[in-house]
Amino acid sequence: MPSSFSKVEMDIDNLIRVPYFYSIDNIRYENLQKMLWMFSNVDDCIEFIDALSNFDTTLFVISSGSLGRKLVPKIIKNNKIYSIYIFTCNILAQMDWAINYVDKVLMFNHEFDLLTRLANDIADYYVQKALKNIENLQLSLQYLNWAKKLHSKATIVNGLNNISVKLKYLESFIEQVEAYS
Length: 181
Hints:
By secondary structure, this protein is an alpha/beta fold. Helix content is 51%, strand content 13%. The protein contains 7 helices and 5 strands; from the N terminus they run βαβαβαβαβααα. The strands form 2 sheets. A 3-stranded parallel sheet has the order 3-4-5, with helices on both faces. Strands 1-2 form a two-stranded antiparallel ribbon. Helix 4 (91-98) links the parallel strand 4 and strand 5. The two termini are 32 Å apart.
């Protein structure tokens, strides 16, 4: 990560300590860095994102509607960004600019909806990484187990008590990969 930034670097595991995301186990997956960087200034955020161009990383960007209005047009073409999430209390007030970016921008007015979608998207990203690294069974299993954990927590946040189709798929896939280990 760029060392020239004075912003505080925080480990997501230490930030997400609400009942819905509380980590019961202390398992740390090697090679799975989960960092949260916060910015209140659009230019600092853009500079940070641009500085990551030489790193093998994927970004999930969350912004307010007012900052997103300025930020999104400047970062939308960055290939490091998986998705951009806009959290706003008034989605209609953001439609005039956000409509131009419907392929990559998702808007939310409820924090649980945003957290559920973010967790599911990150889990889907880890499943993709597991498939790309299937020749390395241990690494692939780490990605799959992290994806399963994220989907499980998203299901809890969403208030669904039943196991989702994605969770059943992940459990089956993990069993198949473990059988080859």
